[in-house]
Amino acid sequence: MYQVDNNSQEIEERPAGYIGPDLNPAGLVLEPRMLSEGVYALMANTPPKDNNGVIIGERGVLVIDAGINGDIARQIQHIVQQLTDKPLLYVVNTTYHGDHSFGNYVFPAEVKIVSSRQNRASMRDLEREKRIRSENMKGNAAALADVVEWRLPDIFFDHFMAIDLGNKIVELWHFGPGNALGDTIVYVPDAQVAWTGNFTVKDGFAPMLLEGGPEPYIETIQKMQATLPVKTLIPGHGPMAEATPALDSLVAYLQMLQQQISTDIKQGLSLDETLAAHPLPDTMQLPPTNPFAPVANPYNIHAHRLNVLATYRALEHK
Prior knowledge:
single chain; alpha/beta; Metallo-beta-lactamase, Chain A; 6-stranded mixed β-sheet; 13 strands; 32% helix
């Protein structure tokens, strides 16, 4: 099993000319889509901005991710009030990244924030996290001005936790490192739906390697595949996905990075030479007829270059 440094942080180095995804919350509207009784995906009207989720049981409500600031957190709470009169009990952070967790502070104290132990441990430097996320604000740095505290999870777990909302069981899983070290999967067994945060994307979209490199990421995906009979994935960003092709294509892409860049390093290629040698794969170029192509294709180019850089840095001293 591949070992990672549990105190590592997101890589801040970026390739020359890199443009990150647009996470500016201005104009973001979350659109509820019912997946089964009491199970709703909240899909961003303007991908790749953040998706969320709402799960309703007889006893109360669980929300997936808190939004990037107070305004989005309040929008989520308003949607919950429109969907049900049941009390909001839990907010689960799928990752520590600020676009998923900065809104924690808006939720009342009686609403418990839940995440993996590793995600909680990664919430240790608010100013650094704000600086990194501000690069995705597209000139709207003021959107993060209200975030002056980083509310930490009240409840945290190592590998697995189940929450009974009343005739609705929600499973929380931490299979290992992926996009970040503490990626938390929110799984609803009776719907076979999983919210994955930054851990997965729809097939045809590039993931983002931010901590640890591809090898541990592959192991973690394979653990998830062996454990959960999931049919539908709600990624943190972009369209929902059929689970099998999304996970299979993600593993194949990461294996390609691992193999090709390991070979480049052994052959003595520099980082710049490696970046030049690996343009975006054809499998991640959506056809013009795909409605997501105008956003996804430019994003994929930059995310892939970041992944090549991150893989090179993860492997260069192995």
